[in-house]
Amino acid sequence: MWGEHTAFGDTGVIYANSVMGACSNFEGGPSALSAGLTGRTPRYGYHLDAHRKGTHHFVLHEQLRDLADWGALGGIVGRATNSYWHVPVISGVTSAPHSDELKHFGAALASFSSVALFHMVGVTPEAPALEAAFHGCPIPKATGISADSFHAGFAAPGEKVDVVVFAAPQLSLLELQQLAGLIAGRRIHPATSLVVATSPEIKFAADRMGLTRNIEEAGGIVAAGVCFYQMYAREMAAANGWQRLLTSSAKLVNIIAGYGYQPMLATMGRCIDSAIAGRIV
User: Fold this and answer.
1) Among 8, 18, 180, 267, whose CB has the most other CB atoms within 10 angstroms?
2) pLDDT tens digit string along 206-244?
3) Would you say the C-alpha torsion 248, 254, 259, 260 has a positive or negative sign?
4) Three-class secondary structure of residue 103 per DSSP
5) Is 271 exposed, middle or buried (0-12, 13-18, 19+ CB in 10 A)?
6) Domain ranges of the chain
7) For 163-277, CATH number?
8) What pLDDT digit, counting tens, does each position of 262-272 carry?
């Protein structure tokens, strides 16, 4: 049993359902605990094949370049579906995305819409072909999508950056390795803070590999086992005078504005360059 707000949260559930073919629903803590204790759970929702067929069809018109683009795509599809019971199907993906790309896509999709399952044609296990994703039913009219539209309307280059955050979802070891390589030998601007969140297990591996040291020597903070928006984000903003937040996570962009921040989505490289410069580059 995978439970929202327990061990895995919505990001874990949508990834398990979509990428691994698991059968789970978003659940609260009491029901997830009860299922764990009894070995039983109500037979409903995404446990049933009837609810797992596609409801919406999206065609990707471009190939994505960065994790931020995958998150932006999740945000666009989420806004267009916007229901727990909708199952978007994405076609037009010409090369298989890796796990971090699927993670950022699913995290943003669940955040913007509460969607718990998606199919990606030729990528996810229940969508070897477009017809299979819709269980042989008529395929809905497709909606074309491009990640570029999500980035419009954010802050202009030159604006001061208060804090750069890599979190939501927590970073994998590969993401930490990329980040440490981008920041090695550089120094974060004294007026800008850099916060990185990962899991305790990944943090331990990053410590052994010297990745944590690279980030901390540059002036960054590496936190383990936390989510930025759940660690008193509003109070941290007030205490540090933070307002403009830069991140590569579309999920965080969606959530953090409610805590008084002005967020902007950017690639990891642009986030690091902006942290060094102290302004959006």
Assistant:
1) 18
2) 999 999 999 999 999 999 999 899 889 999 999 999 999
3) positive
4) helix
5) buried
6) 9-151, 163-277
7) 3.30.499.10
8) 999 999 999 99
